[in-house]
Each structure stands twice: as structure tokens, then as C-alpha cells.
């Protein structure tokens, strides 16, 4: 799998990258802001994505809509607390809150990509 990680906290991004690699990801691309990737072409080069809801104060929701339109599975992993707004805009997309466990993150990505049954959302 090739996984995109949108995370602006460097240590968290590095931890998520290692978790993904340890669980079989062939490639993990980290972007700490949306200018690091082409927001108009978010897929299909990724098999899944892990999105922080806010990157440096900028919402990733428009980018998430583009992923959704292109059929790229994704989850939100964020310290953002208004999950109801996110769940309303993206029904069926898993949202896990920070701090989260590595197992929780990997299970959510696996569920989003159809490799594991979902156990729920935050």
C-alpha cells in the first residue's frame, strides 16, 4: 500500500510513518501542509490516506472531499474536537482522536481500505 499522511506535527508524522511501514505499507508520503502536495491531484497514486483535520490552521476538508470523489479511502486522525461536523460531512469515514494508539490507527486505516471490519469511530 502507498499511504499519504497529512500531519503537521513532525514527531507524530514520523511515528505514523513507522507504524504504517511496520504494518506492511510499501510507501508512506508525509505532507506537513497542503502546499507539499498537489491538492488537485490527490489520487489515485495513494491507496489510503490519514488526514489531520487542521494543518497549520488550514482545514483539510476540501482535500478530503477530493479524495472522496476519487475513491481514495481515508481516515481522520486529529486533535480537532468537533467530530459531529466531520461525521456529518463525511458519513462513514472513521475519525480517531488524538491521542490514539498505534493499533487503533492501523485498524482504522485497514477498515477504511476494506482490509478489516470497522470497529467504530470516535
TrEMBL record:
The keyword Protease does not apply. One of its GO terms (biological process) is phosphorelay signal transduction system. InterPro entries: CheY-like_superfamily, Sig_transdc_resp-reg_receiver. It comes from the Bacteria. The keyword RNA-binding does not apply. Residues 2-113 form the Response regulatory domain. SMART domains: REC (SM00448). Keywords: Phosphoprotein. It holds the Pfam family Response_reg. Signal peptide: none annotated. This is Response regulator. The modification 4-aspartylphosphate is found at residue 52.
Amino acid at each position: 500500500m502507498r499511504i499519504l499522511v497529512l500531519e503537521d506535527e513532525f514527531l507524530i508524522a514520523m511515528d505514523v510513518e513507522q507504524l504504517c511501514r511496520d504494518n506492511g505499507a510499501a510507501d508512506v508520503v508525509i505532507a506537513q501542509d497542503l502546499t507539499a502536495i498537489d491538492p488537485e491531484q490527490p489520487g489515485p497514486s495513494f491507496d489510503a490516506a490519514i488526514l489531520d483535520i487542521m494543518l497549520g490552521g488550514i482545514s483539510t476538508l476540501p482535500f478530503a472531499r477530493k479524495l472522496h470523489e476519487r475513491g481514495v479511502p481515508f481516515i481522520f486522525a486529529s486533535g480537532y474536537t468537533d467530530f459531529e461536523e466531520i461525521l456529518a460531512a463525511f458519513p462513514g469515514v472513521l475519525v480517531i482522536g488524538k491521542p490514539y494508539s498505534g493499533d487503533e490507527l492501523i485498524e482504522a486505516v485497514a477498515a477504511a481500505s476494506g482490509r478489516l471490519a470497522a470497529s467504530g469511530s470516535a
